[in-house]
Amino acid sequence: MTPLRLRQWLGGATTPLRQWLGGAGGRLVVRIAGAAALAWLIVLPLADGTSDSTLFTFTLMFTSVAVAVNWNLTGGFTGYVDFGHAVWFGIGAYVTAILMSLQSNGLGIGWPPIPAILLGMVASGALAGLIGRFTMHLKGPYFSISMLGTFVAMREITRTWGGLTGGGVGLTLPPYLNRQLFYYLELALVVGLIGLTWWLRRTRFGAALVAIREDELGAQMRGIATTRLKVAVFSFAGASTGLFGGLWAYQNTFVDPDIAFVETRTIDAIMGTLLGGLGTVLGPVVGSVGLYWLREVLWTNLLDYHLVAQGVLLILIVLFLPKGIVGIFYARAMSLRKLWRWGASESVSQAESEPRSEGDSARQSRPVEPGQHRVAPFEERTRIVEANSIVKRFGGLTAVDGVDIEVFSGEMVGLIGPNGSGKTTLFDCLSRVHGLDNGSIRLGATDITRLSPYQVARLGMARTFQVIRVYRDLTVRENMELSVQWGEIGVRGLFQRADPATRARAEQLMEFLMLAPMADEPAGTLSGGQRRLLEIGMALMSNPSLVLLDEATSGINPTLVENIKDRLVSINAEQGVSFLMVEHNVQFVADLCERVVVLDSGRKLAEGSPREVMEEPAVIEAYFGAAGRQSPSEDGAGAGEGENP
Ligand code: ADP
Ligand code: MG
Question: What span, in angstroms and rounded, lies between the C-alpha atoms of 630 and 297?
């Protein structure tokens, strides 16, 4: 096997064996191996030859597994790569040490271990929440570096604040009770922690964390309060690592800044997670156990060279195990490449592949009669969205320049204009991605001018995107089930899986959008057209009153476009959902919309019925004059090409 072939095999080529291991077989193997390992770990301390130092070695291993599992919650699931995670370990250790040694320092009465360790846990969790609140606004490497800075700063504070922490000399704790007790305690805690992450990953909360990793802004625009969730998980991971820090301090009976705050604890957590499989439940467990024993072996046999050996190992992981050990079996493990792609927003090429199942339906493409959709008589209509004098500038460029736009209930409105006329920017203003330079927006009865994107989504405005945003690592079904109306979920719903009603609705919509055959495939494997359909489905999952469609048909073949048209009409007719659609396909707009707004250079150029608008000389000049010899109908189906998001 050549290195390349080996790499491909390890990296995710699919074979029947691999598929079996990725599904039912894998679960069986994990259960059997897990039960055997646990049984062995339970009887180990009872065996005759087991010394206290062996038990201590094992508790250290449990600790490094726990730290890696915690690191993976933010680094793997949420995609926030923390270079300073060991800081929470040090804080847990120090709070415990300070409280337990108060007496020997002459500062008061020494605390018993359990409350001291628990307070250490609470303190690191609270501090993680506080610091995360600020640092988690940063993206990619900036977050990583800021956490490294936090780590170094905390160590130096500990060193300097001698009166409380003993400074560089450190603190000595009262002797611990019993190694066996610790062994079992830490075993129970680490097994509990693994179980907790396993459960968490299956709740909406866990899926939302992955959504944050995949596309944070998209998650916000679908109603997920991303800041709250990521800070919460960061704080939980900090508390949990702080707990293990406190336990370690008690057992070690001594702390000083250099052994409580150690960079290698973070590095080990990262390496262990990478080795095992980033963003998976078992990856950090398998990886850090492996790394721990590898280290023990390397240490004893290669003393002087163990760091070199470790470096070589890391390079080998990068080259040959992009998805870690777990990734060999589990196709959905995250590839290491993602880590290096930090912060880079991925753009999906507009000219992307044609849909896979394009011709699959026996449906005849039938033109939709204008006005066929349900439109309430004028008096009955209510205003859903009303935006006044919207101005948005990018530096010297005024992308949207004083636009008024409104959409009534049950209405389908087209928004057209040449490339760069500000259509997408106007959508971004409405869904609150951009702050406004002037103007105000009302959604229903609420002034949303200053709300966050997730709040707007919760009020019933959903959208799709010119540059497709789906959560590529999640399956189509998960994408759908995650795009519920988050305003209705509440804290309890956050820790549950999708309810039967949601699942049924997702199933129905996937059927309706012809996505059902792909329901359990990662959204990243869909064609461009299918992803556009998925986006429409995700928008509809939240029961919106208004959907903004940004070039929902671009790059989709004409047959499928007809299908989308039919579906939009029936959704509009049956559920009364209003649509505001940006379209290059003028025929599409003319068929669906009774009212069209034309933008040019950020200004509203015209408004009226499709026919009226198309006959206005200014529109012909701006829209078609600029585009050369194009006629409206030619501009339609081929809109994908030459399109610059
Ligand atoms: P449309 O969707 O009508 O094709 P856009 O709203 O994407 O147009 O763009 C309007 C103008 O604003 C373009 O000139 C574009 O280059 C500019 N623009 C859009 N987004 C940004 C941004 N984030 N930063 C700077 N300029 C932008
Ligand atoms: Mg656009």
Answer: 71
